[in-house]
Amino acid sequence: MKAGTAPLEKLSLPKNKINVLLLENIHKSAVELFKRHGYGNVESLRDAPSADELRVILKDVHILGIRSRTKLTKEVLESAEKLLTIGAFCIGTNQIDLKCAKRLGLPVFNAPYSNTRSVAELVLAEIIMLFRGIPQRNWGAHEGGWDKTVKGAREIRGKVIGIVGYGHIGSQLSVIAEAMGMQVRYFDTIEKLAIGNAAPCRSLDELLAASDVVTLHVPETPETKDMMTTAKFKKMRKGAFFINASRGTVVDIPALADALKSGHIAGAAIDVFPKEPKGPEEEFKSPLRGLRNVILTPHIGGSTEEAQANIGGEVAEKLVKYSDNGSTLGAVNFVEVALPPQSNCTRFMHIHRDVPGVMAKISEVFSTRGINIAGQFLRTDGEIGYVVTDVAGRVKVGMGIRKDLAAIPGTVRTRFLY
Ligand code: NAI
Predict the structure, then answer these.
(1) Final residue in a domain of this structure, among 334, 352, 380
(2) For residue 300, what is the DSSP state?
(3) Do 181 and 235 share a domain, yes or no?
(4) Does residue 315 have its Cβ closer than 6 Å to ligand 1?
């Protein structure tokens, strides 16, 4: 259909024409959410297709959901002409060429905090296990032993937990540890409001010296690499416990193994490692293997059924918001624009390279037609600009607005919602 001759009701793509493809067995909560919002064409596949397969199956896909195994390279993204947006139904997004997606005007959404509670619960359980000496007693009982001594078996009530990194997980853990009667201390590089009776420490060293158990909840950054070294373990109280369920690079593992063998650290629970096996067929190697007072888990801190369901709902919700309303809040590679619900207006979305003068040209498209702009939202980041213009009522497509907006130099893509 030629631009300018489309009937009014064809202004936005009807939902039954929007194709949603979910790969890698994404939780059914995502499918349910799309259906609830009126998306009829939702296909869900088990596999992670290869690049060649993706180039074929993405031909008519508007909304794509993947997990960590599907690689969205530049070539794949450039071939998916109808694609509007991508959902990474996981935490990490390095399986996607985010720069290319941005250049093509494709916001990518993920679910960074859906498994916060799962990690906090595991850490609390590990604290109880370590204070009771369960790892070694469990090991002993499996070997036919019967160690009933109370020595080294303590309640967690009243003990000091030192939380390093008071973000989503750290602060959630703070709440449940305090509910169990622990005294909470925390250290964060940015000022954080203390929750409940938690008390901040001025430095990592102060926290290490004050805690009966230290648990790390920091991101992987150049500053956090090897933040726990031999010198830092020495600063911990003798007989304290150590937990890491954040990132493997944060701890010098041989230093931890030495601190455990020397008895300075009484036990540890480690979920993340500097080098982790790629799959079940690869052997897990670590200097911590065989230490009876250490709980080793294969990076499963956030892996629960509830977290998977939360991820499904959270990412699908962001995709639907973008498709239905244009909002990019929570996008990992894109300027974030939170938009009000669209009410009795036509919404024009314009993604462009961040060059001077685009905003003025967009406004001109409306002003030269005598159309009053009811609301306008703009975010730029030096690379990309996103302008959303609301115009009262239903604007006639026949006025050539779509064509003129698309013709503005620097335009990446345009979209319209009524
Ligand atoms: P978040 O971003 O909400 O919080 C991190 C906190 O650490 C922030 O408050 C930040 O200011 C603070 N921080 C940064 N550098 C610091 C430093 N040098 N010293 C002290 N504090 C510092 O992150 P969230 O969601 O709480 O996650 C924490 C960690 O847990 C991340 O590394 C994440 O990858 C990991 N994680 C692990 C999972 C698992 O399965 N084991 C699952 C989910 C998250």
Answers:
(1) 334
(2) -
(3) yes
(4) no
Measured by CA distance, the residue closest to atom 44 of ligand 1 is 246
The amino acid at 96: I
Residue 289 class from Cβ within 10 Å (0-12 exposed, 13-18 middle, 19+ buried)? exposed
Mutate to test the pocket of ligand 1, among 118, 119, 221, 244 (most ligand atoms within 8 A of CB): 119
Q: How many distinct helices (H) and strands (E) make up the chain?
A: 13, 16
pLDDT tens-digit map of 63-72? 999 998 999 9
Q: Which residues are catalytic?
A: 247, 276, 299
167 CA to middle of ligand 1, Å? 6
Question: Are 65 and 34 found together in one domain?
Answer: yes
92 lines ligand 1 (CB under 6 A): no
**Do 246 and 272 form a contact (C-beta atoms < 8 A)?**
yes
- Model confidence, pTM: 0.86
- Please check whether residues 142 and 101 belong to one and the same domain: no
Binding site membership of 272 for ligand 1 (Cβ less than 6 Å): yes
pLDDT in tens, 369-417: 888 899 999 999 999 999 999 998 887 756 788 889 999 999 999 998 8
- Which domain-ending residue is among 248, 277, 296? 296
Give the CATH number, domain containing residue 198.
3.40.50.720
Ligand 1 pocket, residue 237 CB under 6 Å? no
CA dihedral 71, 296, 236, 140 (to 10 degrees): 180
Structural domain including 330 reads 1-114+304-334
Q: How far is the CA of 411 from the centre of ligand 1 (A)?
A: 37
132 lines ligand 1 (CB under 6 A): no
Domains: count for the chain: 3
Does 255 share its domain with 397? no
* Same domain? 122 vs 220: yes
Dihedral angle sign, alpha carbons of residues 403, 405, 408, 414: negative
* Structure tokens, 58: 């993405």
Both 254 and 130 in one domain: the answer is: yes
